[in-house]
Design brief:
By secondary structure, the protein is mainly alpha-helical. It contains eight helices and no strands. It has one domain (3-122): Globin-like (Orthogonal Bundle). It has helices spanning 3-6, 9-12, 15-32, 45-58, 64-69, 74-78, 85-101, 106-122. α3 crosses α4 (45-58), α3 (15-32) crosses α7 and α7 runs antiparallel to α8 (106-122). It is globular, with a radius of gyration of 15 Å.
Length: 130
C-alpha cells in the first residue's frame, strides 16, 4: 500500500489549514444566500467553529467535534430548522463554491461534495411546499 493510499481524506485535502479555509470561504456564501441566511444567527462565529470541528472529524481528522460536544447526532441537531431539498441543494452549492475558492483539485472537490451530499439530504425534514 502506498503512502497516498494510507492517508486520510483529511490529510489529502490539506488538514486543519484547508478545513479552516473551506469553512471561512463557505459561511459568507451561506450568509448571502436568500434560502440559507434566515436559518443562521447574525453572529456566525460559533457556527463557523462548530463546522470546522465537525468537518475535521467528518473527513478523517481528529475527533475535535466529539471531544467537545459529544456524538455529532447531526440529524437531530438540525431538526429545529426547516430543511428542504432546495435548501440542501443551496447548501451544497455554497460548499462547491467554497471548495473551488480554496483551490482544491476538481477530483477532490467532486469526492468531497459526493460525501457531503449524503449528509445534506439526510437532514431534509420539511416538504418543499412549507
Amino acid at each position: 500500500m502506498s503512502e497516498r493510499e494510507r492517508s486520510t481524506l483529511y490529510e489529502l485535502m490539506g488538514g486543519a489549514e484547508t478545513v479552516r479555509r473551506i469553512v471561512e470561504a463557505f459561511y459568507p456564501k451561506v450568509q448571502q444566500h436568500p434560502l440559507l441566511a434566515p436559518l443562521f444567527p447574525s453572529n456566525i462565529d460559533p457556527v463557523i467553529e462548530k463546522q470546522y470541528l465537525f468537518l475535521s472529524q467528518f473527513f478523517g481528522g481528529p475527533s475535535l467535534y466529539s471531544d467537545i460536544h459529544g456524538h455529532p447526532m447531526m440529524r437531530g441537531r438540525h431538526m429545529p430548522f426547516p430543511i428542504t431539498k432546495e435548501r440542501a441543494d443551496a447548501w451544497l452549492e455554497c460548499m462547491a463554491e467554497a471548495l473551488t475558492e480554496v483551490g482544491l483539485p476538481q477530483d477532490l472537490r467532486d469526492f468531497l461534495l459526493d460525501r457531503l451530499k449524503g449528509s445534506a439530504y439526510h437532514f431534509i425534514n420539511t416538504p418543499e411546499d412549507e
